[in-house]
Amino acid sequence: MTRREFPKGFLWGSATAAYQIEGSPLADGAGASIWQRFSHTPGKTVNGDTGDIACDHYRRYADDVKLMRELGMQAYRFSVGWGRVLPDGNGRVNEKGLGFYDRLVDTLLENGIEPLCTLYHWDLPEALDNRGGWLNPDIANWFADYASVMYRKLDGRVKKWATLNEPWVVTDGGYLHGALAPGHENLFETPIASHHLLRAHGAAVKAYRAEGKNQIGIVVNIEPKHPASDDPADIAATKRADAYMNRQYLDPIFFGRYPGEMKEVFGEAWPEWPAEDYALIQQKIDWLGLNYYTRGVTKADPKAWPVGGRNEPPKGAVLTETGWELFPKGLTDTLVWMKERYGDLPLYVTENGAAMKDPPIAGGRVQDQHRVDYLRTHLSAVNDAIKAGVDVRGYMVWSLLDNLEWSLGYSKTFGIVHVDFKTQQRTPKDSARFYAEVIASNGGAA
Ligand code: LGS
Questions:
Q1: Is 119 in a helix, a strand, or coil?
Q2: Could you tell me if 80 and 150 are in contact, meaning their C-beta atoms sit under 8 angstroms apart?
Q3: What is the pLDDT along the chain (446 residues), one digit of tens a residue?
Q4: Do residues 186 and 258 lie in contact, with contact meaning Cβ atoms separated by under 8 Å?
Q5: Are 265 and 240 in contact (CB under 8 A)?
Q6: Which residue's CA is the nearest one to ligand 1's atom 7?
Q7: CB neighbour list of residue 202: distance below 8 Å, 6 or more residues apart
Q8: Coil, strand, or helix at residue 175?
Q9: N or C terminus: which one in the chain shows less Cβ crowding within 10 Å?
C-alpha cells in the first residue's frame, strides 16, 4: 500500500441532505416541500417511496452525530429544509424548525465535528412553488431572506456555507426531463429556472457579506465530457454537453456570462437577460464544492435534447448500480480543470460515492469491498490533484447513511453506514471502517 500525503488540516467528512434523511417532513409546524408533494404523487418514485420516515434523523440526530464521532469524522455537510424554517417560504419564521438545526449544529460542535451547511438541496417550499417557484424572478429575494435567517442564527458556529446544491440537476431533472420535483418537462422553462437559481445564489452571497463573517460558496456537479469517437458530430455534441452541464453555472458566476454554446443548446428557448443580472450573479465566492460521480461519454444523437447527444459508456466500462461508469481519473481532471478555468480558490469535494449492491449483514458486518475500492481509487485521484498543485481542502463522502435516493427511492444505497429501514438500526459497513482508518491516518490508509 502506498502512503498518500494529504495536507495538514485536510477536512474529512460525510454528506447528507435534509429530505433524504430527516423524515417527519411536516413535524413541528414545517411547511410541505415540492418533494413531499412529488413523492406522494403516484408513479413518481420507485415503489412509491417517500421521505415520510427516511432515516428518522430528525428524531435520531444525536445518535447519528455520536456515530460520526465514533468514525472519527471531522466534518459533516448537511442541508436545511427551507420549509421547516419558513413554512410559507418567506415571512413567518418557525422557531421550532429553526431550533432543529440550532441543536444539530451545537451537537456537532460538542463532538468536535465542523458543520458545512447547504441552504438549498432541492426541497423548495410548496408554497413558493405555487407562486411559480424557480420560474418567478422574486425567488432571488425569497432565497436571500431565508438565507439571512440562517446566517443570523448559525454564522460563526457554521463557518462554511453553500448556497445551492447542483443547480444543473435542479433544472435538468426538475424542469426539463421531469424525473425530479417539481416534475416539469419544458424546454422554455429550463433556462429561466437556471437563471433565477443563479440570481438567487448571487443574492444570497450578497446578503452573506452583510450578515456573515466566514466563507460562502456553491456546490456543482461536474462530469468531464469525452466524445464517443473522433467523428466531428460527436465532438460538437460533447462541447455542447460540457457547456450545458459543466460551464452553464460557473461561467456566469466567475465571468459574468453564459457559455456561447448555450444558444445552440436551447435554440429559440434561450432568453436574453439584463446586464444587472450578471452583476448580481458574479459575486465573489470563497470556495467551490465539487460533487463528482462519473464522466460522460457523448454520442451525437439529434433526438437526445437539449444537447443533441446521449451518454454512452464505452464497451467494457464498469458501472455502479445506478449505471454510472467508474472513472476515478475524471476526479483528478475535474479538480485540475476547475483551478485552470476558474482560478485558485479553495476547493472541496462535497460529494463522492457510489450505489452498490451490498451483501446482507452477516456477523454484524456489511462487506462492501466494492465501495472500499471506489473510495480508495477516488481518494487517490484527489491526492493526484493535490500533487498537481490544486488547493483541495477537504473530502465529504456521499453518503453517511443509506437514504432516499430521490425518485429512485430506497432501492439505491450510497451509505457507508447501512440503515435497516424497518428498525432504523445503523450498521457501519466495511467502507465506514476503512474510511475511519483513512481519517485517522490523514489519508495514509487510502
Ligand atoms: O443523493 C444524491 C447523490 C447520489 O448521486 C445527492 O442528493 C445529489 O446531490 C447528487 O446528485 N447525487 C448523485 N449524483 C450523481 C449524478 C451522476 C449522473 C450520471 C448520469 C450518467 C448517465
A1: strand
A2: yes
A3: 455 789 999 999 999 999 999 999 999 999 999 999 999 999 999 999 999 999 999 999 999 999 999 999 999 999 999 999 999 999 999 999 999 999 999 999 999 999 999 999 999 999 999 999 999 999 999 999 999 999 999 999 999 999 999 999 999 999 999 999 999 999 999 999 999 999 999 999 999 999 999 999 999 999 999 999 999 999 999 999 999 999 999 999 999 999 999 999 999 999 999 999 999 999 999 999 999 999 999 999 999 999 999 999 999 999 999 999 999 999 999 999 999 999 999 999 999 999 999 999 999 999 999 999 999 999 999 999 999 999 999 999 999 999 999 999 999 999 999 999 999 999 999 999 999 999 999 999 88
A4: no
A5: yes
A6: 17
A7: 140, 253, 280, 281, 282, 283
A8: helix
A9: N
**Bond prior to 182 in cis (omega within 30° of 0):** yes
Q: Where are the alpha helices (DSSP H) in 343-403?
A: 369-387
Record the pTM: 0.98
Query: What's the CA gap between 140 and 200, in Å, rounded?
Result: 4
DSSP string over 285-320 = -SEEEEE----EEEEE-TTSTTTTEEE-PPTT--B-
| CA 293 – ligand 1 centroid, Å | 7
Cβ of 19 closer than 6 Å to ligand 1, yes or no, is no
Q: Do 284 and 276 contact (CB within 8 A), yes or no?
A: no
Q: How many Å apart are CA 349 and CA 249, to the nearest integer?
A: 17
Residues 19, 82 contacting (CB under 8 angstroms):
no
CA 154–ligand 1 middle distance (angstroms) = 28
The identity of residue 229, as a single letter, is S
| Orientation angle between helical segments 95-110 and 139-154, nearest 10 degrees | 50
Beta bridge partners of 116: 77, 160
Question: What is the H or E stretch that residue 242 is in?
Answer: helix 232-242
Q: 375 and 434 in contact (C-beta within 8 Å)?
A: yes
Contact present, 73 and 112 (Cβ < 8 Å):
no
10, amino acid identity: F
The verdict on the CB of residue 294 being under 6 Å from ligand 1 is: yes
- Tell me how far the alpha carbon of residue 336 lies from the centroid of ligand 1, in angstroms: 21
Rounded to an integer, what distance in angstroms lies between the CA atom of residue 79 and that of residue 362?
33
* Strand-strand pairing, 75-79 and 114-120: parallel
What cell numbers appear for 392 in the block?
483541495
Contacts of 399 (CB under 8 A, 6+ apart): 14, 15, 16, 20, 351, 353, 414, 415, 416
The secondary structure of 1-21, three-state, reads: CCCCCCCCCCEEEEECCHHHH
